[in-house]
Specification:
alpha/beta, two-stranded parallel sheet, two-stranded parallel ribbon
Length: 117
């Protein structure tokens, strides 16, 4: 995928995460129902700058697809996949989690500061 600052991408994993977090009262008040979150996601996908990563390779595509020696436990398995997917797609994973930066190339992860106030 050729990327630019003008595009943004999702994949099935990030879309499911969006619906899950949007439906969680801890992350969104008031929480959306899964159907409401899905409808919002579908609306966002209509953005002409959106790209859907449909052909994500299987985890077992190669031994080095994910740098498993950098994955420190079960909670980082999906994160490691998303970082590697950003790398091979020549994109950038945007995240609030600073710990993800150590899972791949520095240019593949951008940590977004959390504003509290």
């Amino acid at each position: 995928m050729e990327t630019s600052e003008e595009t943004w991408a999702t994949c099935a994993i990030t879309q499911l995460g969006f619906i899950r977090l949007s439906s969680n009262p801890i992350f969104h008040t008031p929480p959306k129902t899964p159907a409401e979150a899905w409808a919002l996601l579908a609306e966002m996908e209509r953005d002409p700058k959106h790209v859907h990563l449909e052909n994500a390779p299987p985890v077992t595509a190669s031994e080095d697809f994910i740098r498993w020696n950098k994955v420190a436990g079960h909670q980082k398995v999906t994160d490691a996949y998303l970082v590697r997917l950003a790398e091979i797609s020549q994109g950038k994973l945007l995240t609030f989690d600073r710990r993800l930066a150590g899972l791949g190339r520095k240019d593949a992860v951008e940590v977004i500061p959390v504003l509290v106030g």
